[in-house]
Amino acid sequence: MRQNIVAGNWKMNLTLQDGLALVSEITNMVADEVTGSQVQVVICPPFPFLYSVGKQLPEGSNFHLGAQNCSDKESGAYTGEVSGKMLQSVGAEYVILGHSERRQYFREDDFLLSQKLKAALAAGLKPIFCIGESLETREAEETFDFISKQLKDGLFHLSNEEFAQVVIAYEPIWAIGTGKTATSAQAQEVHAFIREQIARAYDAEAADNTTILYGGSANAQNARELFSQPDVDGGLIGGASLKSRDFTEIIKSF
């Protein structure tokens, strides 16, 4: 059975003190419900907060630590970069790769992301690999061709064993930070297509076991409907993950 996941991407927000207070609120609200449930909660703070936030997550619970990015290099003279091995050493289990903001603002392409995937997997991290189309692409009715190419170029070079460690996040770019959200039917349609592409590239078992998250202005009001779709296994949450009550309501949506 594939894993249900709610991941909170804090992006470049909060101070360490604010972040620790937020984690304390979230864990106090839902720690008992999450422990022993089928839902994993992944908290993805900025790099400087990782160790401190990780130490505050309840041991033995379904709370996990994730990073927002990592280098494609293992080590060396790469000032300002952070390797997968470094992330693993401070307790990170997951890492977000290919977020639309990284692709857009930092010009990360599918080749670079394929190298980052390899590096993250070699360090023992579980990648949350983001894909998704722009409004222009959707309006041109090229969504499926675009996503198929992102999957092929970014992910499908992995072996079966490597691919089994990957979580996919579908994030329609037109719905990130805009307040717009794909309808549950739109999300389900694309998630089902992604699963179909996985089955073709690997096999039906791999497709059925892959967790596919929705990311794109998911919030406390629409999470339950989105998560009720058969191919939507959770969410990669942005702005709502910075509000303890909203984030815990999303977690409870399962």
UniProtKB/TrEMBL annotation:
Documented EC number(s): 5.3.1.1
Cellular localisation: Cytoplasm
InterPro entries: Aldolase_TIM, TIM_sf, TrioseP_Isoase_bac/euk, Triosephosphate_isomerase, Triosephosphate_isomerase_AS
Pathway assignment: Carbohydrate biosynthesis; gluconeogenesis; Carbohydrate degradation; glycolysis; D-glyceraldehyde 3-phosphate from glycerone phosphate: step 1/1
Gene3D superfamilies xrefs: Aldolase class I
Top EC category: isomerase
A GO biological process held by the record: glyceraldehyde-3-phosphate biosynthetic process
Catalysed conversion reaction: D-glyceraldehyde 3-phosphate = dihydroxyacetone phosphate
Domain of life: Bacteria
A GO term from the CC aspect: cytosol
Coiled-coil region: none
Molecular function terms, GO-annotated: triose-phosphate isomerase activity
Main location group: cytoplasm
Active site location: 99 (electrophile), 171 (proton acceptor)
Pfam family, one: TIM
Keywords of the record: Cytoplasm, Gluconeogenesis, Glycolysis, Isomerase
SUPFAM superfamilies: Triosephosphate isomerase (TIM)
Amino-acid positions noted as binding substrate in the UniProt annotation, renumbered to this chain: 9-11, 177, 217, 238-239
Annotated function: Involved in the gluconeogenesis. Catalyzes stereospecifically the conversion of dihydroxyacetone phosphate (DHAP) to D-glyceraldehyde-3-phosphate (G3P).
Subunit structure and binding partners: Homodimer.
Family as reported in the entry's similarity comment: Belongs to the triosephosphate isomerase family.
Name assigned to this protein: Triosephosphate isomerase
Species the sequence originates in: Hymenobacter aerilatus
Record lineage: Bacteria, Pseudomonadati, Bacteroidota, Cytophagia, Cytophagales
Gene name tied to this protein: tpiA
